[in-house]
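User: Predict the complex.
Assistant: Input components as received:
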Amino acid sequence: MTLSLNSFLLISGLLFAIGFFGVLLRRNALVIFMSLELMLNASILALVAFSRFNGTMDGNLFVFFIITVAAAEIAVGLAIIVSLFRKRQSVMVEQLSSLKN
Amino acid sequence: MVVSRNPVNGAMFMIVSFVGMAALLVLLEAFFLAILQVLVYAGAIMVLFLFIIMLLDMDEVEKLRPKTVTALASAASLALIIVGIVVLLGTDGISGQALASLSAVPDYPSAENPMELALRTKSYGLGLFTKYMLPFQMTGLLLLIAMIGVIVLSKKRQGTDGSAAS
């Protein structure tokens, strides 16, 4: 173990920041979902790093649940996007404003 | 990946970053999770994404630039998060003393606790089926719910009357 916990946390935070930036900046719903995945991955990295340096197994086990929840979320989200695209012929989030007003 | 206009390019960069994440997990000696990362994320989820991108065939590839206000706000939030991280970690980082107090949590005595960090895959199964049994079953239920939801969502609607639609 040569790398310190801080470097892992730094990478994790940077990944989270990039994902957050993508969620805010992009207008394509698919790319927004990919950025959400990036944020989940950052949290996975932080969990595993804490678990490794803490000496317990719980963080590693929690990653399983994160991966499962992410997979379920992606499946449902992509189905919603596909059905939206069928109805609207677009996945740009600014054109999906029928709930406005 | 977040600034490339074409979503396919973004997905490719995403795969690269997932493989890099798997390498970081190997550095953390979580080999099983690294393999799982490659299989589930780079294998399944990104293939699903690429498939949907191909299926939707978006001709309007986000040609126009994002609005200035949006770009400014996103850049400002990115800078804020990075500054926060640097302030949190940069000075002396999470100190070793705080970490020691973390591992001194009395819930986990490492002598008789079967859940101390073991690098074998066996300990994952042991933890999943003893301490985290209920969350494990809840995860199975969640997957079932997601599956039913996706089937309902992607079912072709028969007719326009409300009775037949989903």
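Residues 106-112, 160-166 of chain B have pLDDT under 50 and may be disordered.
Let me know if you want any component modeled separately.
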